[in-house]
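Forum: Protein Structure Q&A
Topic: Joint prediction for protein chains with partners

I've read a bunch of threads here and the consensus seems to be that you should model interacting components together rather than docking separate models afterwards. I'd like to see that in practice. Below is the full input, 1180 residues plus whatever partners are listed. Could one of the regulars post the assembled result?
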Amino acid sequence: MQLENMYQEIILDHYKNPHGRGLREPFEAEVHHVNPTCGDEVTLRLHLEGDTIADVSYEGMGCSISQASVSAMYDLVLGKTVPQALEAGEHFMTLMQAKGDPSVAEKLEDELEDAVAFAGVSKYPARIKCALMSWMALKDASARAWGGPA
Amino acid sequence: MQLENMYQEIILDHYKNPHGRGLREPFEAEVHHVNPTCGDEVTLRLHLEGDTIADVSYEGMGCSISQASVSAMYDLVLGKTVPQALEAGEHFMTLMQAKGDPSVAEKLEDELEDAVAFAGVSKYPARIKCALMSWMALKDASARAWGGPA
Amino acid sequence: MTQTVSRPSESSGVARNAPLPLDVEAIRADFPILTRTVRDGKRLVYLDSGATSQKPRQVLDAERWFYENVNAAPHRGAHQLAEEATGAYEAARATIGGFIGAPEQEIVFTRNTTEAINLVAYALSNAATAKEPEFRTYAVGQGDEIVVTEMEHHANLVPWQQLCERTGATLRWLGLTDDGRLELSNLDTVINERTKLVAITQQSNILGTINPLGDIVARAHEVGALVLVDGAQSVPHQPVDVTELGADFLVFSGHKMLGPTGVGVLWGKYDVLDKLPPFLTGGSMIEVVRMEGSTFAAPPQRFEAGVPMSAQVIGLAAAVEYLQALGMDAVEAHEKALTGYALEKLAEIPGVTVIGPPDTVARGGAVSFTVEDIHPHDVGQVLDDHGIAVRVGHHCAWPVVRRYGVPATTRATFYVHTGYDDIDALADGIRAAQKFFGTV
Amino acid sequence: MTQTVSRPSESSGVARNAPLPLDVEAIRADFPILTRTVRDGKRLVYLDSGATSQKPRQVLDAERWFYENVNAAPHRGAHQLAEEATGAYEAARATIGGFIGAPEQEIVFTRNTTEAINLVAYALSNAATAKEPEFRTYAVGQGDEIVVTEMEHHANLVPWQQLCERTGATLRWLGLTDDGRLELSNLDTVINERTKLVAITQQSNILGTINPLGDIVARAHEVGALVLVDGAQSVPHQPVDVTELGADFLVFSGHKMLGPTGVGVLWGKYDVLDKLPPFLTGGSMIEVVRMEGSTFAAPPQRFEAGVPMSAQVIGLAAAVEYLQALGMDAVEAHEKALTGYALEKLAEIPGVTVIGPPDTVARGGAVSFTVEDIHPHDVGQVLDDHGIAVRVGHHCAWPVVRRYGVPATTRATFYVHTGYDDIDALADGIRAAQKFFGTV
Ligand SMILES: Cc1ncc(COP(=O)(O)O)c(C=O)c1O
Ligand SMILES: Cc1ncc(COP(=O)(O)O)c(C=O)c1O
Ligand code: FES
Ligand code: FES
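Posted by a regular:
Agreed with the consensus. Here's the joint model:
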């Protein structure tokens, strides 16, 4: 069984008990992303205080991987500055391109916290988009809410 | 060498010395046919006296087979009634579908005269259209010039 | 023929139905890919023939024979290879036409069903701007209507949306009932005097529904509309005869019926084809070309521009011969038996809901389902881990999943090499998924 | 590499040129079809690669590998086969892109060159009716002009005539000089501020001419026009790099470059592709589909509707690798040597006239000729009887034969397996035709 490799305990926990779920006010940007291959979607709101992410609230339907990913992302980026969050997004992208290489996951463990559990997903090309959907939404929302360092 | 099979002496004679070539008056119908695969063409005029083909005059460019075919057709249909000529056309079509079967040619020898020499052409699918071009033109011209038995 | 490969599954309370009409074991031996294993040595249980079918050796051999012996551009060239290639290509056209009861001059080769549908859709908008009066017969424009159904594959929906966008025509559609059938109560208002074309699938790729085409064709022809039947999921799985169908167009894909990728078919009534302007233009479909303008060949050449997918056409003819040797009645009966068995097996599993007709009446072998509290993709992932290949998602029929209030489904589809053992594996796999995600 | 298979022909006064750059004997061993005989046991002398090329074993094996091991619909399905099929398909895209110096997301797969050109032509008319503002960027309409040349293949002429018919735009063209070159003296008036697109071949399939694209691309971009280069006869025969070409689109066919039938390529600059509306619509090219309307994926998926010709794409990548192993510089040099030799050999025969540039300067290996007082098809027939496969007719470039006042030509084209012996056979065959028809 290779299944446990992808569906790590941490992932199933986030899936069953998502952190930060629900759409909340206030917010500076709201985006809606769709995964065209499966039809799953996420609506994501971003609330900033200065450079800092004060809230990420979201709603949507999707598979365990996409739902767990947005929950783990919530934990990871809350309280970070936007540049820090975008950097984490880059790390997560690197993890998704690792094709299951454990050394990549090892190196990113500190940066990605729970989200490093998604390492196994990178062995299943059809699921990478699931894990990335919320990160793409966050990037998009950041671009709208935040003009970058002035 | 199978070449002689297709390029019968009779065919080469008609090609080098075509019978009835040239466009003449009077005529009741003029048609222009093109072979789209090679670009060759024939212009054909039909002159009737009553039911009888009094003249078939033609001009055009084309390969040896097409040129010899129109010349042999001229000999065959001149003086025939339109229904007789169309019947000869049917026989010629049968010959072209014979895939080189000599028994077909044998049976049609009386009806087709010189034109039976085209039997060898039926073994070369790409050349069948060459041999048929003038017969198609004649059929077309007959339909225009002649309303059929009233 | 007897079916020996599958043994009754111990866990099942459902009695096996009669022996399957096809000799599954013998057929499997013809499919090289079925000897491979997946996910660490598991037998490949291929239940995704609805997306694309696997190919028997006979089809691969036919293609290779073409390339190694007669490869040349058909209808171009006066040498022996070109003659033989042309002969093989046109003989294949006759074989494929014969399979659906059509004369060869009504068979147009396309890449797939999608291109065949687009061909018709573009011909109708081209008709509106054609300079040749005879090509304007079927012109579509403002005030005209095109009718589809809510169960169409995107391939039989989006091209008509786009035709409407190009021409100003309006798209209308027949809806669906709760049990996966067409809502026909408003047939006579949806299809009306303004309707120019009705495009409808014969078998739904997601619900399995087989539609009552007779009534729809009759109504369409009553108002003078053309009818295009999407046979992508019917022609591979049941006998289809265009003379009985009564439609104007039938489209299907080679890759879904044991044939190669890259070849599909548009059948059209000759008189209709003859009045349509060309779609793709270029070599081999012309009559005379001048810089100032061109005229076009008669069908089917008018619709086959450029050097064609010759080897694939030859391969598709071999696929047709393979199916004919099995007999399409037997293929249909085989899949009906499997479908009945699958519906029973799935009904036994708590939490599993089939989307589509619940029994085998007017129903083909596409079995879509949801599993309570597990996302379809996660179900598919567990099945994959067991070596079972299914499709997950909206199956290119997004409006259907939306209609039934689910985000997506997991879908199993059957074919000539499918046996009871494959369906047992599916049922066991679903139970494993429930266990894995802790929903039971 | 040395060339041992051909011996100097006794009858020839022309000295053999240097040893050929490619090892013809070794290459021939890769092509199964070259072992067959034609017309009662004669060696097949295949001089019709310009129509379609033969396929090496490596290409046929790659296709078969795909079918026997990973066949599934790419980008559709969550099982291992679908993953592997998608991986192979996208890896092939990268390989084929690399061959012309393009990133993979700029490579769109089509059936052939013809479809690729039609894709662009329809996208430009669809742009005029698109509801999305960004898709209207390149809209073509009344008052706009499309520019082609008089040497285009029908595939690069008729689609533009039809685009003009659909939109009311005007077609203009560059003419030809007596020695088979483009007439460029009026370049600046033919390509002007009204020009929306210039479509031009890199190598003429009938004259062999290689066109000076640099000047034409520069002028087109000066006036803001797009440039489409027809690479059907260049990409198989010479190194082509899109970054050096400077054009916006490049199109070519797999079957002319040792690849399978049924697959072609549209390369487009990403920024241009991104602003084009879709052409064929259906599955796999969408973003969101509702009954009321749909949105579309980014390129290249936007232009690849339906289940693709996956196996053929894999086969084309194998063909590309085969050509890369030979080296495209060597392929070009090889054909140049053969062309020079052929032009000399033909010049020796009284009554033979070459239509096209008389030497190898800016000239590829399509050698078209007429033989005094013998119709081209009759020449071809005698050659065929000697086992020599050539093409006869207007070669889908009817305006060219009309321009040079001949009804048609006989054409020999060369490729990697062509040797001096093939050209000797051609020359001998022409003499035999003259003898047979009694013109000498
Ligand atoms: C220059 C040129 N353009 C376009 C084409 C059309 O290619 P295809 O028939 O593969 O679409 C050809 C060959 O037929 C050609 O030689
Ligand atoms: C009902 C139906 N129509 C059309 C299509 C499109 O077929 P293709 O992708 O081969 O063009 C499919 C399958 O994908 C289908 O199931
Ligand atoms: S299956 Fe849709 S996001 Fe995972
Ligand atoms: S080659 Fe043109 S008619 Fe014979």
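The interface with chain A takes residues 39-40, 375-378, 381-382, 385, 392-394, 398, 401, 407-408, 436-437 of chain C (CB under 8 Å).
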